[in-house]
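Give me structure tokens for this 61-residue protein.
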Amino acid sequence: MAQKKMGRPPSGDKPMKDRIFVLVDDDTKMKLEVCKKAFDTTTSDVVRKGIDKIYDDLDKK
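Here you go.
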């Protein structure tokens, strides 16, 4: 019998496999924490939403 693969299953159509590391100052970190609490979400979600918002604004120019 074939042995089953162990570990986490693939996550949908677009797996998140790339990492981005960003250095921020204290003010930016505080703003990020406020956003995380306001939207009850993670750092990654706040960053993704911010990137999506800026990207969408490019179309409006």
